[in-house]
Amino acid sequence: MRRTNIYLDENQLQALKRLAVTEDQSVAAVVRDAVDTYLKDRASDDVAWSKELKQLLERVQSRIPPDITPDEIEADITSAREEVRQARRAARRR
Fold this sequence. Notes:
Layout: H1 10-22, H2 27-62, H3 70-93
């Protein structure tokens, strides 16, 4: 374990101290538990996001005809992006 410093406002520190007393733990232990929970939640969000992305990619890929090459797909994307840029430029000029 490594030591680190964090800055808390007075209300945060008082709330942590009260929680530590009620749970018979140190403030550092309460903070570590909170950090662990936060990181676990973020990791599960990443897993959920990855799952959604994978499903989206599968849906997109299922709509692409099998005879189209990756180079053709890239060319279509590049062309569409350029069309959008030109449309935005034209809209700004109005």
